[in-house]
Amino acid sequence: MESLTSTELDTSKYAVQVDINNVSKDEIQPYIKLQRATNFLAGAMIFLKSNILLRNKLSFDDIKPRLLGHWGTCPAINLIYAHCTRLIKSRQLNMILVTGPGHGAPANLANLYIEGSLGKFYPEYGWSEEGLFNLIRGFSWPGGFPSHTNSELPGQIHEGGELGYALAVSFGAALDSPDLIVTCIVGDGEAETGPTATAWHAIKYLDPSTSGAVLPILNLNGFKISERTIYGCMSDDELVALFTGYGYQCRIVGDDLENIQQDMASSLEWAHDTIRKIQKAARSGQAIYKPRWPMLILRSPKGWTGPKEAHGQRIEGTFHAHQVPLPAAKKDDEELGILEKWLKSYKPEELFSEDYTPKQDLLDVFPDDSLKMGMRKETYGNYHPLSLAEWQDFSVKQEEDASPMKQAGKYLADVIKRNPEAFRIFCPDEMMSNKLDTVFDVSERVFEWDKDVFGKKGRILEILSEHTCQGMMQGYTLTGRTALFPSYEAFLGIVTTMVIQYAKFVKMGKETTWRPDIASLNYIETSTLWRQEHNGFSHQVPGFINSLINLKADMVRIYLPPDANCMISTLHHCLQSKNYVNLMISSKHPTSVWLTPEEADRHCRAGVSIWRKYSSNEGAHPHVILVGCGVETTFEVLAAAALLRKDCPRLRVRVVNVTDLMVLGFNHPHALSRTEFASIFGTHQPIIFNFHGYPSVIKDLTYDRHSVPGRLHVHGYKEEGTTTTPFHMLTANGCSRFDIAIDALQRVAPNDDVDINVHELVTEYRHRIKEHSKYIEECGQDPADLNERPSFSE
Amino acid sequence: MESLTSTELDTSKYAVQVDINNVSKDEIQPYIKLQRATNFLAGAMIFLKSNILLRNKLSFDDIKPRLLGHWGTCPAINLIYAHCTRLIKSRQLNMILVTGPGHGAPANLANLYIEGSLGKFYPEYGWSEEGLFNLIRGFSWPGGFPSHTNSELPGQIHEGGELGYALAVSFGAALDSPDLIVTCIVGDGEAETGPTATAWHAIKYLDPSTSGAVLPILNLNGFKISERTIYGCMSDDELVALFTGYGYQCRIVGDDLENIQQDMASSLEWAHDTIRKIQKAARSGQAIYKPRWPMLILRSPKGWTGPKEAHGQRIEGTFHAHQVPLPAAKKDDEELGILEKWLKSYKPEELFSEDYTPKQDLLDVFPDDSLKMGMRKETYGNYHPLSLAEWQDFSVKQEEDASPMKQAGKYLADVIKRNPEAFRIFCPDEMMSNKLDTVFDVSERVFEWDKDVFGKKGRILEILSEHTCQGMMQGYTLTGRTALFPSYEAFLGIVTTMVIQYAKFVKMGKETTWRPDIASLNYIETSTLWRQEHNGFSHQVPGFINSLINLKADMVRIYLPPDANCMISTLHHCLQSKNYVNLMISSKHPTSVWLTPEEADRHCRAGVSIWRKYSSNEGAHPHVILVGCGVETTFEVLAAAALLRKDCPRLRVRVVNVTDLMVLGFNHPHALSRTEFASIFGTHQPIIFNFHGYPSVIKDLTYDRHSVPGRLHVHGYKEEGTTTTPFHMLTANGCSRFDIAIDALQRVAPNDDVDINVHELVTEYRHRIKEHSKYIEECGQDPADLNERPSFSE
């Protein structure tokens, strides 16, 4: 094998050939005109604040003072939008569009305006002079639509910000929507991201009998912001090899720019025919194993139809077309002239009537409202609440030890049974390891490439890509269904910025009048750091909490249920909650059940409470307040309380558990009032807080509770760990029962009525830590008695 | 085109054929024996605490109380390690190994033990009874080597924790090391991650004339933790298509398990021959455009050679081999029996002498020490400090406005010129946009697939994958060189968990005796939220700071230089610092230069100082302390100080700037002492802190400074934003000069000697905010005077 260069590759036999004359030139004329209109509008939006249809000679005064927006990607979005519209109308399809290059909002807005979707949701953007003025002048103007797509735009289910997630989101939207086609535009910049690079594999998780289809269109214009793109530098043969390997059939459109319109129309028909064949086979019981789904690769010049050049510098087809192609149009005569010539080249007078309304022939190209991409019900108002049992049916007795995750798995199996089409679990292959495996009693995994489960309609999708799990969950949730993402605690942070983008999307959606409720995003973090003593330091990362607490308070809920009953109660609550990001953190290991189902119900509703039965004096008039938050850290707090009860019976110890972290905050909807806070956390006593994660979380939340700093002492993870034993993890980070007890003893004010020899006890506890450490080093495990439920008998 | 199924794919012409008899059976026998030894050791490490060579009958007492470790991936790592060793020895190669499946540490440890690398760095792991006992019993035992590879293991440059990054790290290591081959094992679990999926493209950035090679070996054992893998379910044809599309030539090894050893040996020789051809061509001036680099795909059963089954359940070749294949070996007779039979099948008596030392024939298979993969100098002690000019040569005059990034770009161009082989910039195509473009005066980009820069040896690598940038920077840095990663502020958080993994790697490396200094990881965040008013809400994310401050204090440095001089000074400092993670945050827009070069030098060394010339009364005896941290927020603080100076001249305002965030902390090496803190931040006056990012950062850092809570009022980003104007961004988040001035006025204790009508001024400032907002809505831009340098003339 001597071939050493990719230029010798020949994969032509796998490149799809389409007869572009399948669609006649006449048929597509109206859609070419639509693109003239949308390209015009996109250009006008970026530049004009008056004289919006160029009925007068363009002057500097007509130009916006700040030129914002991304032109480069707009013409391709307009091309795709137009031809999708044609296909929808001619074949009466249910289709939505996910725009990866969301920076090209002017294109989306232009289409949404002409199809009437903007006007439907925003009367001020109707077909009128005022509406058109609002669109053009208002774009990227303070108070108007932003420069990137977001939830304020009808039809959107994807934030047009951070790149990489459009494809996974599209697959999530298609799941369990058998009649839906999700067209997804992926730019060649976005295609370089890791999340996109692996999301191409997601067809392998799509069951054509019960789910819809995703039609990816990879748009190659060759440039990112200023550098060439990887995909833009790949030959047709390389592209065909790659995407054939991913499992697609690919059709390359645009190599012949002259015929690109006919080609796009015919290629879309081919793609739809192919989707139908795959679906028909599956739905008639003849499912094809490893069906090759269609995709299009669209080569089009960056900023196509835009200004060709300025100051002797090429613009169209180069990175100079990326953002504002004529940045000096407000002060440079040459650029102003080019701008005018360019915008006039679309002949606005043929596009808009005298009264500024779009010409009738532009409106006629669209299907009925219900099929317009900006009005598809999947993209708003499609929420299907789950049918759920009472959580108490899955509760456990207080006397038993139970694994919170094992119990959660039983509950989830029931959720799956009750909601066969509106609930999914996305997980990076950690369901078994996380002890949630009871779900497999009622459902297979979904993975169409695996012959053993092919066609079996599983509800659990396990791909080792947190990005894909997250993207799919977003797409699934934003189209009205409910999902759960269980993860190792250490690795959920992989999707940190995705969650932030999602939260921004939802925040703006809430500020519209027309986006109704959706389900919350639901996360379980388990296999937490305190029990990752076996996988070691790399698996000990509780930082996802820190990222969430900076989001808008009304969106974020963080729960740390301390036992199995609280876990199921919390899960039950989260799965029916709306519009939040819910993070649940608990253990997969069997552990004490502290509360009866009734007590757990009350405790979880309150979010925090004094655990009287584990406190001395029922928690009244405490000398010190011990707070547990998290499974293992609460266990240690209870063990410390038991120790102190035995060793200094006159010390009054109040035990508090926080299960809803946000009660601690100050401005959160769940925040305790001052009075409530004082009734639980006292006003002057030392508070020894044993927290599951980084102490910074507790410091941040309680900062503005001015009675607290100075008396609050937070123990938590301080980045100490390795492969060791659970107890050693606790002592290494100062979170063991002895550390808590020592801190409590040292903080309690000298007080006759307590009557303890602090020094002696502290020495004794330090000694016990050492003894335990010695045992651990010798025996390779923790002394068994450390796992025993602490005894509170007097 | 009727073909609808991937099963019809035929890409055999692109699959590499190798005559496996190129290497004789005899030649490889010693390396098969080496695998017997390493497989034995890996198995023994997971299970045994005594009777380590099974010289007595195995009993429950010999079994560790906690069985930890991942067996499934070990045999394949051992196969690869053995055959790489053979190739290194026979061809005298410089090769290092990056192990993606780092969970398989027993395999790496076994090889490092026998090759003598463990003993070199850790005398207690020598070739002796004690050394062998320490290895086997000590594995995953408290105090011993952890269950996953980390920096405690010789030869490692990659944390064996979170999956996805091995490949990008390998490419980073190969850059500018022309004689080095980095063999990278990628597991089929890891291959599903996005970061890996796009890192395959990294060959397109490798210049064969000046950089080394990466030899990826994709190991398919078919299973992740418990689910089948995507790649494991792909046919040879699909795999060949995919990786041919990525640009590789691929050789599939292992389809015939009988001949896998000869196949591996011959295929590695083919791979090395191919690498040499590509390099030779390039180094003789005949560079091949788009060379197809070699890769191997190794199919091997999960847990190969391990226990076949137990309790009637298949283990070898299934997910049951993933972790501990016989989990009940300490108490179940059947499992104990299987374990004994299994471990004895490797014939330990033939592997180790009576005195427990490895038999000589095992030692003889290795090359000289300098070529052993555990002793390669690239993996430790290879640090090349940069040659740097004085930063003052690039400073600007205080009277001028200057863009901190523009100036940084000039400085960086000089760094590139001075260090043509030991400095690289990795960036997701944001160099131009971030105004660092002066570097292009002295260097091209590197991108071998782009004909325009092919072979031009550029120093700036721009791929739109933050994961790839980060992975490459890690590999480059850990092999002794220095790199910089400039990014939009909003998107650096994409690599949050990667940085955490890296920090864990470095922390443990510092705790060894033998890992010397390396350069710091250096980040620039610019295009910050306050000036992402044009890209909108999605581009406004300052949360990366929050993730870093939870890392070990002695590793993290966060700087927010307030002007161009401070920026260059900081950059100069960071590029020569060692072992840290440095985050620099500053603006790309022209802004006031507040400090002369001399002042900037002093200020940056101190990290924080009172800016006497912008304070009233030279900052002495203040009524209120205004603190700026960040470019725009500092500008507003100065504007507020100027306002107050004019409107209430008797109010004494101290202006402080924090450029080194960590001075605020309590336990950080840079932390101010109590006295220093009081001398700057006072003891009782209100502190109005205008912070660049989320207020939680400041709250966390100052929490334990007990004089502070209650008088510190932090302004910062509170997740309000859209496409708007810079000033509106400030007012929406309460960070404008008026917000700061109002807060100051309202917090100052009533005081005769100040003599101001607070109510009147507050009303006036609120009115001005409204007036400005009105202007912004009408005119689409900020009033020009808001950008003027505040005047401090009396």
UniProtKB/TrEMBL annotation, chains A, B:
InterPro entries: THDP-binding (IPR029061), Transketo_C/PFOR_II (IPR009014), Xul5P/Fru6P_PKetolase (IPR005593), Xul5P/Fru6P_PKetolase_C (IPR018969), Xul5P/Fru6P_PKetolase_CS (IPR019790), Xul5P/Fru6P_PKetolase_N (IPR018970), Xul5P/Fru6P_PKetolase_ThDP_BS (IPR019789)
Record has Lyase as a keyword: yes
Gene Ontology BP terms: carbohydrate metabolic process
Domain Xylulose 5-phosphate/Fructose 6-phosphate phosphoketolase C-terminal per the UniProt entry, residue ranges: 588-788
Xylulose 5-phosphate/Fructose 6-phosphate phosphoketolase N-terminal domain location: 23-383
Molecular functions per Gene Ontology: aldehyde-lyase activity
Cofactor dependence: thiamine diphosphate
Entry keywords, A to Z: Lyase, Thiamine pyrophosphate
Signal peptide, first to last residue: none
Gene3D superfamilies: 3.40.50.920, 3.40.50.970
PANTHER family tied to this protein: PHOSPHOKETOLASE-RELATED
NCBIfam families: PRK05261.1-4
Family stated for the protein in its record: Belongs to the XFP family.
The name this protein goes by in its record: Phosphoketolase
Organism: Mortierella isabellina
